[in-house]
Design goal:
binds cobalt (II) ion, 5-stranded mixed sheet, single chain, Beta-carbonic Anhydrase, Chain A, 2 domains, 212 residues, alpha/beta
């Protein structure tokens, strides 16, 4: 771990390196952002969206929280989605979960987590929705991994439930919504291949916010 002072030394070196390879880099950044991606991921320090996607500053709009939750009542994530779609015109929205997620692990424990209870309930609700499948898995690690995946799927559905995503997709053909898993143990990124059009059609049976 770097010391506190080390951070600023690292920053000076980074600025110098960036300028050496691309003299206009920071001037371009100051002109504005035009990212194609909105990335919604976990706050976990091991999951670095820029590194794992191999992208530069300016290419991805990012929101992170414990367990990569997209809650309808969370003004933060809802504002991020609205801004990304309406103003930045992102082409893709990604919900990226990760194996060995502490948030998911905590939600699997029968324990009072205090102030974390309402947040973790979002994950416990995912468990309840998929109880039959999850209870059929006897291996604990396998069950944990599967809940990580199902949580990503459900949070993708929560993105699709928003009016801004439905309306924009049906008029412009984007954004597409994707679910990914980052494997902390291997570094591999896995696309869960969520069928966006099918899910949108299914969601709109009940959550249709496209009209009017
Ligand atoms: Co996590």
């Amino acid at each position: 771990m770097n010391s506190y002072k080390q951070i600023f030394e690292n920053n000076k070196r980074w600025v110098a390196e960036k300028k050496a390879s691309d003299a206009e880099f920071f001037e371009r950044l100051a002109e504005g952002q035009n990212p194609d991606f909105l990335y919604i991921g976990c706050s976990d320090s091991r999951v670095d969206s820029g590194e794992l996607m191999g992208v530069e500053a300016g290419e991805v709009f990012v929101h992170r929280n414990i367990g990569n939750i997209v809650s309808n009542l969370d003004l933060n994530v809802m504002s991020v989605i609205n801004y990304a779609v309406d103003h930045l015109h992102v082409k893709h929205i990604v919900v990226c979960g990760h194996y060995f997620c502490g948030g998911v692990k905590a939600a699997m424990q029968a324990k009072d987590m205090g102030i974390l209870n309402p947040w973790l309930r979002n994950i416990r609700d995912v468990y309840r929705l998929h109880k039959t499948e999850l209870n059929a898995i006897s291996d604990r690690d396998e069950k944990y991994n599967r809940l990580v995946e199902l949580n990503v799927v459900e949070q993708c559905l929560n993105v699709i439930k928003t009016a801004v995503v439905q309306k924009t997709y049906l008029t412009k053909g984007f954004p597409l919504v994707h679910g990914w898993i980052f494997n902390v143990k291997t570094g591999e990124l896995v696309d869960l291949n969520i069928n966006f059009q099918e899910q949108l059609k299914d969601i709109q049976e009940i959550y249709n916010l496209d009209a009017g």
